Amino acid sequence: MSPTRIRRADAAVAADMQRQLDCDRDDHCAIDSPLLDAAHQAISDSTPDQPVHVVTLLNDSEAAMVARLNLIRAAQRSIDVQTYIWDQDDAGQLVLNELIKAARRGVKVRILADQLFSFGDPVLLERLATVNQNLEVRLYNPTFHEAQTSVVEFSASIVCCFMTFNQRMHNKLLLVDDAIGITGGRNYQDRYFDWDNDFDYVDRDVMVGGPAARDMATSFETFWNHKRSTPLTHLRDVNRYLLDSVHPGPLPEPRYAHPERVARVVEEAADDAWIDDVLVSDTLRTGRVDYFSDLPAKTDEPGKRSAHEFTTHLMRMVGAAQHEVVLQTPYLVMSDRAKAIFERLHQGTSPPRIVVSTNSLASTDAFAVYALSYKHRKRYLKDYGFEIYEMKPHAVGPAEDNADAAADEGPEPSVQGGKQVHRRVGTERGLLGSRGSARRNRPAPLTTPGRRFGLHAKSIVVDDDFAMVGSHNFDPRSDHYNTEAGVIVYDARFASELRDSILRDTQPENAWVIAPRQQSSLSMAIGDISASLPIFDLWPYRYATSYDLKAGCTPMRPSDPAFLSCYTPVGDFPDVDVSPKLIYTRLITAFGAGVQGVL
């Protein structure tokens, strides 16, 4: 963009900017919030040597949305939002609308979103540029300095400038008044809040109030002022619209596909009794909490230790494990550094137990990544001692979590694993789920019908003492390309709560167990040779396969001598129908080892 065009667009924005406020009070008409009040109290009670924090684990998707809405409405000074995906479905529209309302009552609102999967509509961004003087939006690392990336531009970026294009901002943060923040795995899209009727993510956030919020503010400021964080007037397509003589008019009111569920969470966000019962009652008051974030554009300075700050702390935390590591990641593709750590732990005199909760091919929408996880199963089981549990697409636990919220919408009972489950249907039956970028990542077709769930949470518990919730997938992309962020909580109570949450997802009604296949020594030898090949890894009988618990049996670990008497093999890709994605998975397993770091 030429400086002249940018100056002209800045002048156009200044001329059309809305400056009228809806509130003239000093507190900008903020609502009372026990969440924000507890954060301010923690800051007041803290000393440099003895910090005090309030911490709330946000496993439930509805609570995660309500907490965000409540904090946005309670903000008196500032709201900073950082995210990887911002879609224009119900979840994305709702949060954006609440932020605009906060700006119109006088709160300074800044939104920093990674460009690739956020706000792909230049007309919307043109309107946001002038919606209110207190709202500012920037896009991180825009492809060819445009808000909207076409297929041709996407391909061209891979060819011409791969390292720059491939480095994405994967951080997620909502920070209010520099006092309390929410970070974790959720983006602003229906799937992350159980609002997609076809496919939803099992995800997790953590809400932290106290001194750690200052580190969140420092991190956000670093990203906001980085050269890759691009103001709207600097984007070619948005700039053209801003300088066009014909403008689309003011931003219209949101049009929700399912207004009944939006109304429900809006009501709950203003209900003190609901907030106390669901959020405040689960809040822990604790001491040390650390927020870590990689530096923006960490691929520019790969040798700079601070650029990989969050990754470094994660590895150090896991490497110090004494008796147990409980890891949950949607993508079980280990970085070289992670492999070395787990191999060293497994070879120790008293190796810790390593429990891994991850996706199956039936539950993931990233089948190419799953193919490489599938290729290296033997290494994970034998060299690292992993106990691997892959999520079932119709996991009972997530469905039960949604049963209460669905009750007001006309629940329809179904039976899975001997339990009655309620799925959210009623007025939503037959309607489309989320729109936009969710449509780009379709999971493989299944042999069974019904709403499915896929794992997206990224969390680690070490030795029941401390735990991490964040955006880091523990894979090569998170290590080397994407910037990541998260919270480490040094509290045994929080670690126990998080551990229980992860282990619930490994229970038989929610996951298949990955264990060695019963096969001849010849077949195993051929499989070992095939798996060692970077290409032409074509042998179909892998070292391990999926197992399901037999009726009447008690769950047990794969190392238990009685395991095979209580578990039955269900195939390498249970519940996945024959489809191109199944074929692609096999092909990537056979020929795709070289792209592991990129995936």
From TrEMBL:
Superkingdom field: Bacteria
Pfam families per the UniProt record, alphabetical: PLDc_2 (PF13091)
PROSITE patterns linked to this entry: PLD
SMART domains, per database record: PLDc
Protein name as catalogued: Phosphatidylserine/phosphatidylglycerophosphate/ cardiolipin synthase-like enzyme
Record region (Disordered): 399-449
InterPro entries on file: PLD-like_dom, PLipase_D/transphosphatidylase
Residue ranges with Acidic residues bias: 401-411
Organism (species): Dyella japonica
